[in-house]
């Protein structure tokens, strides 16, 4: 079983992995330069979800899981150790046994407003609760600030954000829906 951990520690964020995800696999930051990512991250609160590498059947350790094609199966392809493709697990940290599987950043004045941006879950880790842990952790981190609103714009995962009090403001899922979270009335 994979163990997930939420983190706001900059040391846990692998800029190389985050840059690859956002510039190559996201629809909103495709082609963004590494320098632009670094500048954006430096001006933001950064968050990550990490997964341990010790889970049985972990593809990052070369172990097969039930859904993997068997060796020799034509669906297995010709990939060898060291090959990577979009959706492959992020490289892990051998010292901790963890790898980054989710990332998001927040831009805020820390008084009235925050913008949730660049939320991304590693394709191989979707469906494991990474997004829920990431959004829950961010909301918990921001709540003590007493912000009037947290806003975002997305073309997907509307149901995920709704679970944490985000409501639609306008737009459509195809063009990007604006959502915001406001504190509950006292």
UniProtKB/TrEMBL annotation:
<protein>
    <submittedName>
        <fullName>Acetyltransferase (GNAT) family protein</fullName>
    </submittedName>
</protein>
<dbReference type="Pfam" id="PF00583">
    <property type="entry name" value="Acetyltransf_1"/>
</dbReference>
<dbReference type="GO" id="GO:0016747">
    <property type="term" value="F:acyltransferase activity, transferring groups other than amino-acyl groups"/>
</dbReference>
<feature type="region of interest" description="Disordered">
    <location>
        <begin position="55"/>
        <end position="97"/>
    </location>
</feature>
<dbReference type="InterPro" id="IPR000182">
    <property type="entry name" value="GNAT_dom"/>
</dbReference>
<feature type="compositionally biased region" description="Low complexity">
    <location>
        <begin position="68"/>
        <end position="87"/>
    </location>
</feature>
<keyword id="KW-0808">Transferase</keyword>
<feature type="domain" description="N-acetyltransferase">
    <location>
        <begin position="49"/>
        <end position="184"/>
    </location>
</feature>
<dbReference type="InterPro" id="IPR016181">
    <property type="entry name" value="Acyl_CoA_acyltransferase"/>
</dbReference>
<dbReference type="InterPro" id="IPR053144">
    <property type="entry name" value="Acetyltransferase_Butenolide"/>
</dbReference>
